Amino acid sequence: MADNLINIGIDARGDFFYAARVSYKLGRPEIKALFRTEKTPLNQHQLLEGGNIIFALPDNKVAIKKIMIKPKTDDFPQRVLFELEQSLLEDEKNYCFDILKNDKEKYVLGLITRRKEIEDSQTKLLGKQSNFSLDFMCQLRSIALAKGFLQFCRLNDNNLICLADFNQQLASIAFIYQNNIVDVTYMLLNKYELNNPDQIKQLAIELKTVINFKLASFYDQGITIPLSSLYITGDKSEIAMINIFKRYFKVNIQVPAINSSFLSDTFHPEKIVWEKYLIALGATVN
After folding, report:
1. H helices then E strands: how many in the chain?
2. CA 75 to CA 40: how far, in whole Å?
3. Least buried of 21, 30, 143, 225, by fewest C-beta within 10 Å?
4. In what order do the strands lie in the sheet with 95-100?
5. How many Å apart are CA 222 and CA 164, to the nearest integer?
6. Contact by Cβ (8 Å): 125, 41
7. With bands split at pLDDT 50, 70 and 90, how would you rate the model's confidence at 101?
8. What is the DSSP letter of 247?
9. CATH of 6-59+117-283, one of 2.60.40.3500, 3.40.50.2300, 3.30.420.40, 3.40.50.300
10. Distance of CA 161 to CAs 113, 126, 133, 170, 176, Å?
11. Which residues have a Cβ under 8 Å from the Cβ of 61 and sit 6 or more positions away?
12. For residue 150, which of 131, 172, 178 has the smallest C-alpha distance?
């Protein structure tokens, strides 16, 4: 991230942008503002001034490659970049690359994004012109979900957990083990009507299939324990969704709980639906 110590994370949810303004000036994050606005260019919004903009990029806009390279080798960034470039069929100048490390020292996740996707996101969010200078960056939505959970929520489980956020068209999914992001994925939701209990049942079956597939892949990473918890967030009623999911998952299912110690004194926590801002909050985390 840039040197500015104010980060503004923005997540597109349904018909709105959800945004979080977080200060890192004291080393420990302090949530300064949370706001929701209609999906119109935000180039004149005063709460964006003086900060780094980090947009939560939809998971289906980014390709992910798991690379079995130990992160602590001196040349690992160059080796990862080489692996990512070799997987492309087009000029690598058309793409941006990123690396998600973890503490397991066996692999990293390489991220590949078309530059045009980032440019289009910036235009959609800020318009073609802005009234003030802004640093604009992107972070994968599922990674922002996991980072928001690890940084801003009450952590009661050090085992293998899954986070799933259900937006209107896409579910962002992240897996965390011992406070490390071990993998991310997504599901397209276009075929589901999330107000329909029968459709939620079908969604639960597909989600269980996705989770079981990922759990099987973790054996190669030395993670052999079962899933312990499933955390649900989304645009629809999490309570209704959780009640149906409990029929299909034999794990603890709940909504993430914010750690209020990160709030500035101006907040009234009882008036805020925190989980809708979790991805925006996570986008501010480096």
Report:
1. 6, 13
2. 43
3. 225
4. 62-67, 108-114, 95-100
5. 23
6. yes
7. confident
8. T
9. 3.30.420.40
10. 27, 35, 39, 20, 5
11. 113, 114, 117
12. 178
pTM of the prediction?
Answer: 0.90
pLDDT at 222 over 70: yes
Nearest to 155 by CA among 237, 261, 67: 261
**Cβ contacts of 92-98, under 8 Å, gap ≥ 24:** none
Q: What is the DSSP code (8-state) at residue 142?
A: H
Task: Give the whole-angstrom CA distance, residue 182 versus residue 175.
Answer: 6
Whether residue 198 is predicted with pLDDT greater than 80 in this model: the reply is yes
Report d(CA 136, CA 121) in Å as an integer.
10
Q: Which residue has the tokens 């085992």?
A: 159
Question: Residues 199-218: what's their mean pLDDT?
Answer: 95
d(CA 19, CA 36): 6
Domain boundaries along the sequence of the chain:
6-59+117-283, 60-114
Tell me how far apart the alpha carbons of residues 26 and 133 are, in angstroms, rounded to a whole number.
24
193: pLDDT strictly greater than 60 = yes
Of 10-14, 38-42, 237-241, give the range with the top mean pLDDT. 10-14
pLDDT tens string 108-163: 889 999 999 988 888 887 776 554 445 678 999 999 999 999 999 988 777 999 99
Q: What confidence score (pLDDT) does residue 177 get?
A: 93
